[in-house]
Backbone:
């Protein structure tokens, strides 16, 4: 009787015992990292909508013996095992259930569903009006993606395999869903660090960009005033725009069509104005539910064995470099445009050509007013910023299509 | 293909492809604006809103 009681009690202490083993120390480290993510999300409000579920997912996945990321046997495999008359050991495996975090991962990360649902919401929230008023500003959205490709070279130099290097470089898109979409397909083993780096650096854009913007521009350039944006776009143009973007980018880079198609579907519903319920659901309920599930599932990929590696540090370093390079190239492109236009374009606008919307546009406005209180760059920066959203997806789409063309995917 | 050939190909085709895609979009927007110019009615609606 005593032996049975002790055996039963041992079941209650397995988790604690494991924490004091060598493997358990890794879990302790990951629990601390989960705590840091939760602290940043809750107390510092660093991308709280993502970092809170990611931090909690990380917490859940790293509690010893929790098995929440356990991959069980699916019903199809059970039937096959029944037909072939599997041995007892295999039948024992069949009784194992899939952990709930694994269910979320399989339901929306492994098949890229959650990032796409979030993209429909982003499209429904985005007003491309400022971009359509001055379409040439879309070129800033291309310049702001150069960090992706330069970082790809750095990642290759550090010895990352091709597809891992591509997935890491996509952090430079400054676009969480795009980074997750690409990493989940081509480097799922790096999904945790890539996602956390992408969202962390997006939140740090107001800290990362201003010193670069100041270092690369003169006072005269920073105080360049741009004319007020005049309204010149009809509702029909706004309605046709998402359809045209979908067709054009789908024809050029079909591998990225799910990303561009999702964002443009949301925007088309917004501009159509006849499906207000669907638009509201996309930007609220659907985006919120997808964000919650995506965050928990991403956090769950941060298991100790997968996360506590030197590659994680390298990914964070490369992600930082990517976003710095995006800003550098964007501002330099702005300087070039300043010269070519005879001083009519404020080069600071170039820093807004990334996908962190509307954060990057606000940074440009703040920096512009820091040197000239009566300089209003916001609408121009918003145009470049929405261009950055399209540019980041276009860059990812082009990359995937080139990879397909090379036969690597 | 060695890694440098891969990286430089991706960079050249990637940056070029992104600029080309967005340049086509700029041209498309300008075409749309010519096809659907802002009417006086649209202007009045925007002032009311």
Residues:
């Amino acid at each position: 009787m005593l032996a049975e009681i002790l055996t039963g009690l041992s079941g209650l202490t397995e988790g604690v015992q494991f924490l004091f083993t060598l493997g358990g120390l890794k879990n302790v480290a990951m629990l601390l990292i989960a705590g840091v993510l939760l602290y940043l999300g809750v107390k510092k409000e660093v991308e709280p909508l993502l970092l809170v579920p990611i931090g909690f997912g990380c917490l859940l996945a790293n509690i010893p013996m929790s098995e929440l990321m356990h991959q069980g046997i699916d019903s199809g495999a059970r039937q096959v095992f029944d037909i072939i008359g599997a041995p007892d050991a295999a039948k024992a495996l069949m009784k194992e259930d899939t952990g709930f975090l694994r269910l979320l991962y399989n339901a929306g990360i492994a098949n890229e569903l959650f990032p796409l649902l979030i993209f429909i919401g982003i499209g429904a929230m985005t007003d491309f009006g400022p971009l359509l008023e001055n379409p040439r500003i879309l070129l800033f959205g291309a310049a702001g993606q150069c960090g992706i490709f330069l970082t790809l070279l750095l990642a290759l130099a550090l010895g990352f395999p091709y597809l891992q290097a591509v997935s890491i470089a996509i952090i430079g898109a400054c676009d969480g869903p795009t980074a997750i979409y690409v990493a989940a397909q081509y480097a799922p083993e790096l999904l945790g660090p890539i996602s956390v780096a992408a969202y962390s650096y997006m939140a740090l854009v107001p800290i990362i960009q201003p010193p670069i913007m100041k270092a690369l521009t003169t006072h005269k350039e920073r105080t360049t005033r741009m004319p007020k944006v005049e309204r010149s776009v009809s509702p029909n143009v706004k309605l046709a725009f998402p359809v045209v973007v979908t067709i054009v980018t789908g024809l050029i880079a079909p591998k990225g069509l799910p990303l561009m198609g999702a964002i443009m579907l949301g925007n088309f519903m917004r501009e159509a104005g006849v499906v207000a319920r669907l638009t509201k659901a996309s930007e609220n309920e659907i985006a919120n539910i997808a964000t919650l599930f995506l965050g928990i599932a991403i956090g769950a990929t941060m298991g100790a064995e997968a996360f506590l590696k030197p590659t994680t540090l390298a990914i964070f370093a490369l992600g930082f470099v990517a976003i710095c390079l995006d800003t550098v190239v964007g501002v330099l492109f702005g300087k070039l445009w300043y010269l070519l236009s005879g001083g009519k374009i404020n080069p600071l606008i170039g820093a807004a050509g990334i996908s962190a919307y509307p954060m990057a546009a606000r940074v440009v406005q703040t920096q512009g007013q820091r040197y000239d209180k009566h300089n209003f760059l916001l609408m121009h920066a918003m145009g470049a910023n929405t261009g950055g959203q399209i540019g980041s997806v276009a860059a990812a789409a082009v990359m995937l299509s080139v990879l397909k063309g090379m036969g690597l995917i | 293909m060695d890694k440098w050939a891969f990286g430089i190909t991706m960079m050249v085709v990637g940056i070029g492809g992104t600029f080309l895609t967005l340049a086509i979009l700029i041209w498309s927007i300008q075409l749309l604006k010519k096809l659907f110019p802002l009417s006086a009615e649209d202007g009045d609606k925007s002032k009311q809103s």
Notes: The CA atoms of residues 28 and 34 of chain B lie 10 Å apart. The radius of gyration of chain B is 20 Å. The mean pLDDT of chain B is 87.
